[in-house]
Amino acid sequence: MLDIKCPGCGPRAQTEFSYAGDATLTRPSLDTATETEWYEHVYLRDNPRGPHDELWHHAAGCRRFVKVRRDVTTHEIIATAGPHEHLGGGGK
Fold first, then answer.
1. How far apart are the first and last CA of the chain?
2. To 10 degrees, the CA torsion angle through 90, 14, 55, 22?
3. Contact 48, 64 (CB under 8 A)
4. φ, ψ for residue 39 (rounded to 5)?
5. Counting CB atoms within 10 angstroms of each CB, which of 13, 48, 51, 86 has the fewest?
6. Rg of the chain over CA atoms, in angstroms?
7. Where are the beta strands (DSSP E) in 1-92?
8. What angle do CA 66, 68, 21 make, to 5 degrees?
């Protein structure tokens, strides 16, 4: 089990969180994006190896979103921060 450090609550068990997606994606513009751009955004994903930034929702705690840098190969959590904060510790 992972221990995730919530910026609001401190270290908590992974069971209190739900995975909310890739934190590196940028949503296409609602006004100018083509159908192809939306298709690629919704359906095509990279499968990174090593450190990767993810969003997790602290569903059983403060209900905030947390940005987590996790090595997807070893599951080591390298850093955590609020969703709009910069993560230290290297990686993508």
1. 23
2. 80
3. no
4. -60, -50
5. 86
6. 14
7. 3-6, 10-13, 18-22, 51-57, 65-71, 77-81
8. 75
CA-closest candidate to residue 67, choices 28, 20, 14, 2:
20
Express each pLDDT in 7-51 by its tens digit: 999 999 999 999 999 999 899 999 999 999 999 999 998 888 999
State residue 69 phi and psi, 5-degree precision. Answer: -95, 115
Q: Which tokens sit at 33?
A: 């994006």
Ramachandran angles phi, psi of 41, nearest 5°:
-65, -40
pTM (2 decimals)? Answer: 0.83
- Residue 26: phi and psi, rounded to 5, are -115, 125
Distance in angstroms (rounded) separating the CA atoms of residues 22 and 53: 6
